[in-house]
Design brief:
By secondary structure, the protein is mostly beta strands. Helices cover 0% and strands 49% of the residues.
Length: 70
Amino acid sequence: VSNSLISGNSIRGLTAINSGAKLVASGNRVTDNGTGLYQGSSAVLQSTGDNAVTDNGAATSGTITSLANM
């Protein structure tokens, strides 16, 4: 997911959950969600570090892996 607005979700914004799921987030605005970035179970959530994650109930949950922005 890149260059998107993820906003107004009562539970989670960007979510990777369940075995085999992988989400790569780059250049997004994630705001006004229950949790901004959510990684659950054995899924993978990678962030290039240039996501604006603001004004969520919690910024992150789980393990968010850094990925170099090329």
